[in-house]
From TrEMBL:
<dbReference type="InterPro" id="IPR041312">
    <property type="entry name" value="CHIP_TPR_N"/>
</dbReference>
<keyword id="KW-0802">TPR repeat</keyword>
<dbReference type="GO" id="GO:0051087">
    <property type="term" value="F:protein-folding chaperone binding"/>
</dbReference>
<dbReference type="InterPro" id="IPR013083">
    <property type="entry name" value="Znf_RING/FYVE/PHD"/>
</dbReference>
<keyword id="KW-0833">Ubl conjugation pathway</keyword>
<dbReference type="GO" id="GO:0061630">
    <property type="term" value="F:ubiquitin protein ligase activity"/>
</dbReference>
<protein>
    <recommendedName>
        <fullName>E3 ubiquitin-protein ligase CHIP</fullName>
        <ecNumber>2.3.2.27</ecNumber>
    </recommendedName>
</protein>
<dbReference type="GO" id="GO:0045862">
    <property type="term" value="P:positive regulation of proteolysis"/>
</dbReference>
<dbReference type="GO" id="GO:0043161">
    <property type="term" value="P:proteasome-mediated ubiquitin-dependent protein catabolic process"/>
</dbReference>
<dbReference type="InterPro" id="IPR003613">
    <property type="entry name" value="Ubox_domain"/>
</dbReference>
<dbReference type="InterPro" id="IPR011990">
    <property type="entry name" value="TPR-like_helical_dom_sf"/>
</dbReference>
<dbReference type="GO" id="GO:0071218">
    <property type="term" value="P:cellular response to misfolded protein"/>
</dbReference>
<dbReference type="InterPro" id="IPR019734">
    <property type="entry name" value="TPR_rpt"/>
</dbReference>
<feature type="repeat" description="TPR">
    <location>
        <begin position="6"/>
        <end position="39"/>
    </location>
</feature>
<keyword id="KW-0808">Transferase</keyword>
<dbReference type="GO" id="GO:0006515">
    <property type="term" value="P:protein quality control for misfolded or incompletely synthesized proteins"/>
</dbReference>
<dbReference type="Pfam" id="PF13414">
    <property type="entry name" value="TPR_11"/>
</dbReference>
């Protein structure tokens, strides 16, 4: 182990990274890891390069190692969550990982909590989009299947009627013309009735699917009271001020740190320690996001 040599390669990697020479940076960070494999910084530095070059599995591997070395390494969970979110089949784990990153960032008061919160929201949004795409595909398949079944049923019923008519003509030679004429008219009317019945069923099915889509869309409309008063995005960690106004924790913290120690709406003095978690609203928002 050679910590000083490892640090030298890390610094050179940082220079390459600043120049957007990611392959060269990866090489330097890899050398740093060889020299000192127990420093989580080297793994997450390399993971950022892998993220920029869309090598998501390598990002995940490096971040898993970094968080093994330090179970409270915020950046490790943050980068891992971002990489997981790029893989459709792993979005659920991305959400869990980013939530952990966010909770740790609040505890440790890191400066990029808002970026983590945004990544979390994007992962949630992607989960909705994947579920919605799957639902629409399944509905389309079901709609086609039901419509095909109805058409097959209509053909079967009409064909059965035609067979019955032919058999009747054979046994009623004397009344062949009249029977043919009369039954043909009835047959046409019955077939037209079958067609009307099929069209009515098809219309009913389409109405049913349209209604389901409308209801689903309504459920995905975010209520105003779930959104923060600063960014108007859905809140991740709602807190209440002494004035009774609810904000997202990261947004109000950013306001207090950058603008001033006052409530942005009531304009009354406000400190971070005055904020109280709105647990009931948080639970409601989490339930909404899980729908």
């Amino acid at each position: 182990m050679s910590p000083s040599e490892a640090e030298s390669h890390k610094l050179q990697g940082n220079i390459y990274f600043g120049q957007q020479l990611y392959d060269e940076a990866i090489r330097e960070y890899s050398t740093a890891i060889i020299k000192n494999p127990n420093n989580p910084v080297y793994y997450t530095n390399r993971a950022i390069c892998f993220l920029r070059t869309h090598q998501f599995d390598k990002v995940i591997a490096d971040c898993e190692r970094a968080t093994e070395l330090n179970v409270e390494w915020v950046k490790g969970y943050y980068l891992m969550g971002q990489a997981l979110a790029e893989i459709d089949s792993r979005v659920e784990r991305a959400i869990t990982t980013l939530r952990k990153a966010y909770d740790l960032s609040i505890q440790q008061r890191v400066t990029y909590s808002e970026e983590i919160a945004n990544a979390y929201r994007q992962a949630k949004k992607k989960k909705w989009e994947i579920a919605d795409k799957k639902r629409r595909s399944e509905q389309s398949d079901l709609h086609s299947y039901l419509t095909t079944l109805m058409e097959e049923e209509r053909k079967r019923r009409v064909e059965g009627l035609e067979g019955w008519e032919r058999e009747r003509v054979e046994y009623e030679l004397v009344r062949a013309y009249l029977s043919f004429f009369t039954e043909t008219v009835e047959e046409v009317n019955i077939e037209a009735n079958f067609r009307w019945e099929q069209n009515e069923r098809t219309s009913q099915i389409q109405t049913l699917f349209n209604t389901a889509n409308d209801e689903s869309a309504k459920r995905r409309e975010v209520p105003d009271y779930y959104c923060g008063k600063i960014s108007f995005e859905i809140m991740m960690d709602p807190v209440v001020t002494p004035s009774g106004i609810t904000y997202d924790r990261t947004e109000i913290r950013q306001h207090l740190n950058k603008i001033g120690q006052f409530d942005p709406l009531s304009r009354k003095p406000l400190r971070e320690e005055d904020l109280v978690a709105n647990l009931s609203l948080k639970e409601a928002i989490d339930d909404f996001l899980d729908q």
